[in-house]
TrEMBL record:
Main localization, broad class: membrane
Source organism superkingdom: Bacteria
Localization per Swiss-Prot or TrEMBL: Cell membrane
A GO biological process held by the record: transmembrane transport
The ABC transmembrane type-1 domain, residue ranges: 79-269
One cellular-component annotation, GO: plasma membrane
Entry protein name: Sugar ABC transporter ATP-binding protein
Alphabetical list of Gene3D superfamilies matching this protein: MetI-like (1.10.3720.10)
One GO MF term: ATP binding
CDD domains from the UniProt entry: TM_PBP2
Record InterPro entries: MetI-like (IPR000515), MetI-like_sf (IPR035906)
Amino acid sequence: MAARQALRKRRERVRRWAWGIPMWLLALVFLLPFAWMISTSLKPDVEAFRIPMQWVPDEPRWENYTEVLFGESSILIPFGNSVFVAALRVLGELTTATLAGYAFAKLRFPGRGKVFIAYLATSLIPAQLLLVPRFVYFEKLGLYDTLWALILPGMFTVLGTFLMRQYFVSQPDEFAEAARLDGANELQIFFRIYLPNALSMISALAILTFVWSWNDYETPLVFLSTPENYTLPMGLTSFTDENGAMAAGLSMAASVISIVPILLVFLIFQRRFVRAMTESALK
């Protein structure tokens, strides 16, 4: 028995190494662009595209970060705008998606299935096709060139409602039936029973919504025209040299700063995100 257990452990160790080494190599390949970005952010522009590339600069140019944060084209205002937009979009998305998902999953009303299918069918319309109607609509409402033109559409997404609906469907109906026998209404059932159990999926949806909002470039490009209202993706395009070409060092320094919030959000919620993805896969 001892020999069999030792042989089994040895095989498991070999199997782990056989899978682990290719995964580590693949991870390193994916990390190379980030390493290049960090290296370039510490170089003057003339050394950014030198061949062969020097990964570690002889004299790191920390002034690039100082210029990006406090220089003429500072990203602090676009950074603050992106934080404001992302925060409100996440709050709005979580509110509408959880309520709508619960309604489609647990409430009984005529035509519930047909309404849900019709709602899902709207996702087949390309987002680019709606840019012109939304532009005209927001202009008439006086919301053009304001951050609300980015916030309001981001508060309602089909994917968020679909994810929350699928999660609530997987939860037992017996919880609600027992609560109703005790005199609880639908809001009490939602907030006290189902919502606390959905924190993992809510965290996953919050991460996805934050990343979508933080990286959104197309929508600000269409709906914003004043530099003071630019979000961070738009602000990253403002770093140019005296010839009008991209200033590689400054652009990469700004890009490094821009990914820090995404990393922090993911590190904070990663356990719940992984748990939500695992639970959804198992169900």
